[in-house]
């Protein structure tokens, strides 16, 4: 089942969960569904903001309360955590605001912030504003480009060559990911 069909079937609850777990693709799908009139645009943005905000608050709490747990300690050894820590040390408030826009740092960043001395209150305020702006941007993208996406999908339905190209790109991506995973397996 696709993200769009989940959001279409379960509405704002699926969009809330999608924003918390997956991120931009679910929120853009929510904007597309709002463009089609299946859900309201303000409702889509609110559900996306709430899902993103609450997920990040939860990850922050994990970092704050379980910073010495083996799972968090193991996470500290990853390259993504190191990048998050580096940016956090340079620009703490700015980083809290933008981490959700940075690919590969979305989940690890609030955990990294939680392991620092940044107050819960400060994280709460910046995270709230950032989640609202993020949700408006990505639901807006889905809403504004709804016609173009519908036209593109309409073409895909009728042109089997495009499906072969999409399948090839997906297969290549899976192969690259598998190679990357295989090479990283032996590293501590």
Percentage of residues in helical conformation = over 70%
Overall structural class, as computed from helix and strand content, comes to: mainly alpha
- Return the average pLDDT rounded to an integer: 82
Major beta sheet summary: none
Q: Any idea what the radius of gyration is?
A: 19 Å
Through-space gap between termini: 36 Å
Task: Count the beta strands.
Answer: 0
Strand content: under 5%
Domain count: the total is 2
Shape label: globular
- The poorly predicted ranges are none
Number of helices: 11
Q: Secondary-structure element sequence?
A: HHHHHHHHHHH
Q: In words, what does this structure look like?
A:
This protein has 188 residues and is mainly α. It folds into two domains: 3-144, no CATH class; 147-188. It is built from eleven helices and no strands. Helix 2 runs parallel beside helix 4. The longest helix is centred in the first third of the chain and has 25 residues, at 41-65. The model has no long low-confidence stretch (mean pLDDT 82). Residues 23-143 form the VTT domain. It holds the Pfam family VTT_dom. Keywords: Membrane, Transmembrane, Transmembrane helix. InterPro entries: DedA_domain (IPR051311), VTT_dom (IPR032816). The chain crosses the membrane at residues 41-62, 124-146, 162-182.
């Amino acid at each position: 089942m696709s993200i769009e069909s989940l959001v279409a079937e379960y509405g704002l609850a699926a969009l809330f969960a999608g924003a918390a777990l997956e991120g931009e693709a679910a929120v853009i799908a929510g904007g597309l569904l709002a463009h089609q009139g299946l859900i309201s645009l303000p409702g889509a943005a609110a559900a996306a903001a709430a899902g993103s905000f609450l997920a990040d608050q939860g990850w922050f709490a994990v970092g704050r309360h379980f910073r010495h747990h083996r799972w968090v300690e193991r996470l500290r050894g990853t390259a993504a955590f190191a990048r998050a820590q580096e940016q956090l040390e340079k620009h703490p408030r700015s980083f809290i605001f933008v981490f959700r826009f940075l690919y590969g740092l979305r989940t690890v960043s609030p955990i990294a912030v939680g392991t620092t001395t940044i107050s819960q209150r400060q994280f709460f305020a910046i995270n709230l504003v950032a989640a609202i702006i993020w949700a408006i941007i990505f639901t807006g993208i889905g809403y504004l480009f709804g016609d173009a996406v519908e036209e593109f999908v309409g073409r895909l339905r009728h042109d089997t060559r495009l499906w072969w190209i999409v399948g090839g790109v997906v297969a290549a991506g899976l192969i690259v990911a598998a190679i990357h995973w295989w090479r990283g397996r032996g590293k501590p």
